[in-house]
Amino acid sequence: MELFTNQVLAGIATGAIYACMALAVVMIYQAIDHLNFAQGEMAMFATFVSWQLMQWGVPYWGAFVITLVFAFVGGVAIERILFKPLAKAPVLTNVAGFIALFAIINSSAGLIWDFTIKQYPTPFGSSPFLGSQLISTHQAGMIGVTVLLLIGLYFFFQYTRIGLAMRAAASVPESARLVGINTSWMIALGWGMASAIGAIAGMLIAPVVFLEPNMMGGVLIYGFAAAVLGGLTSPFGAVVGGFLMGIFENLAGTYIPGVGNELKLPIALALIISVLVVKPAGLFGRHIVKRV
Amino acid sequence: MTTLLNVKDLRAYYGQVQALHGLSFSLNEGSLTTLLGANGAGKTTTLRAICNMVRSTGAIEFDGKPLNNRSTENIVRFGIAHVPQGRGTFTTMTVEENLQLGAITRKDSAGIVSDIERMYAHFPVLKQRHTQQAGTLSGGEQQMLAVARALMLRPRLMLLDEPSFGLAPLVVRDLFGILGKINREDKVSILVVEQNAQLALELADQAYVIETGRIVMSGNAKDIANNEEIRKSYLGY
């Protein structure tokens, strides 16, 4: 039983990170109808920036905040420079854009910081949390920061005018323009926020997976799986999907014989496919009927 | 009487296809003007061109200021509220959020709150359903919501694209009654595009008839309604 509880709690901790990545993916998907394959690389690059800042002597939380600002501005810039011109381009052009972005960011990080694996600090420490052997303080910190972030985002989207405008721009762009919302900038803002959310995920997971240019590959796949599981049209679903994904991954690794650490990722991919077969809109997604 | 909206030699294009061929008309401050015409005559395109939602040339002046080359969201800020065909409801949001969105360009939060109450007085059914998802409303209720959302801007000019479309005759009567009241009491100028010519002519003071992207007839709404020849050849009743 203790093993089970332990695995579930650890699953919630990594699930928090998947939830953040899934949320970032869903935010951009809602705004432009495309999956951002480079979401993980953007997060990785931001994490490197925070690491560099700490190398220069900036304290952890200072670096954390500066990195969020950097990630936000970077996300907005990527949208303005690369994806705004592609807004009316065919799907494949956009996919090519995302792959290019992936390659550019990945290689740049390798060029600047090289591909060796680096230690990344945690501000929470890694001692047992509250004296319990079930979960470490860093894992508790991952959950805590994510929960704070989610609550903050909920209030932002539910109770602020700009949040309302962003939701409107994503759901019915034409009507949003007709009430005077600058939908183009709302999309850019969505990119900025998604990028900052990804940066938080990157900085929280870096002490676990270690810092290197390919650190987010697996995490992003879990994030995609979580988003698909919860439904790409539902931010709430994406978050639930993230936590479920983390727990599922850990339990599968522990209890299904022969899975272990190596086969956890294929299991995630199998889950994506199964969900798409059984429930194409995801657990919480809405069916979108398009007239052709 | 001052001219609020002046459209001169308007030509609009969908890709290579020209939809409006040099259309000119004007609308007086405080008036309720209707654009009539058959399917495909260019009524919707005219409204969309005013809000720069379709590529067009020609002059569009609102209150003496040119609207050409301004983005849709900027044109709204002049006080032009457009109720699009199909109502443009934010279906996943609540009724109240839809109303708040109508006022998203305004800064006076107290005024917005009191205007939402005013809308509930105009349209009591919206108050009953204010926490409901707007997509769950009936067609008539969504049309009420669309009009209320447009009014939340405190517009000087309201553009309505086929408000009667898909509604039961009784609901249409109701809606047109409210539009007339808004025009008289709130001093909102209204340009309404309609296929239901009979009803629109009862409501309007000025009327224009469009055929294949040109104005073919204009005048006092009563005169047009009483002219049997025009009615038979252009309005089909």
Automatic annotation (TrEMBL), chain A:
Keyword Acetylation in annotation: no
Subcellular location: Cell membrane
Molecular function via GO: transmembrane transporter activity
Membrane-spanning ranges: 6-28, 60-83, 95-115, 135-157, 185-209, 221-244, 265-289
Primary site of residence: membrane
InterPro entries, alphabetized: ABC_transp_permease, BCAA_transport_permease
Hydrolase in keyword set: no
Family matches, as PANTHER family: ABC TRANSPORTER PERMEASE PROTEIN, BRANCHED-CHAIN AMINO ACID TRANSPORT SYSTEM PERMEASE PROTEIN LIVH
Protein's name according to its UniProt entry: Branched-chain amino acid ABC transporter permease
Organism of derivation: Bradyrhizobium amphicarpaeae
